[in-house]
Design a protein that fits this description.
This protein has helices spanning 9-15, 43-56, 76-84, 117-128, 139-149, and strands at residues 62-65, 94-98, 102-108, 132-136. By secondary structure, the protein is α+β, with helices and mostly antiparallel strands. It has one domain: Trna Endonuclease, Chain: A, domain 1 (3-Layer(aba) Sandwich).
């Protein structure tokens, strides 16, 4: 179920477009040659869709994204410094703090994407500590994670 019944994800993303930027739906990744089907949204587009959904809630939770990908242009010393300052692989894309002290960690993937070993290890550790963690490649999957955590119906 989409946030706006009767709208496709692409239509919903177009409704969220920012002035001066091309529409999100126009920037969806195309299927590889030889594979038929509708264009699939990128991981960034899935994240934007989840953030737009959270913004539409009556009580907007506190949300942030941790940039954790590897920058191949970094020198060895810069990478060592980041690691010394606490950079960890596999950290979920979004941390969402809901009213009442509930924190949900959400790893987002493009449709068909899969988690890395580091992400699976981090998710398992967060769950072991009692946190709500989920992986989603659609807005519906993200909402299912929120429902499981008890923060939406």
């Amino acid at each position: 179920m989409l946030a706006r019944p009767g709208m496709t994800l692409a239509e919903e993303m177009d409704a969220l477009e920012v002035p001066g930027l091309p529409s999100l739906a126009s920037r969806t990744r195309r299927m590889p040659k030889g594979i038929k089907g509708a264009p699939q949204p990128s991981e960034d587009q899935v994240q934007r869709s989840v953030l737009a959904y959270l913004k539409r809630l009556h009580i907007e939770p506190l949300t942030w994204h941790v940039r954790n990908e590897t920058d191949k242009k970094l020198t060895r010393n810069q990478m060592f410094r980041r690691k010394a300052l606490g950079k960890k692989g596999g950290v979920p894309d979004l941390t969402i703090c809901w009213p009442g002290g509930v924190v949900v960690f959400l790893e987002l993937k493009a449709p068909g994407g899969s988690t890395t070993v580091a992400q699976e290890d981090r998710i398992a550790r967060l769950e072991q500590l009692g946190h709500h963690v989920g992986v989603a490649s659609t807005l519906d999957e993200a909402r299912a994670v929120f429902r499981k955590a008890g923060v939406i119906r």
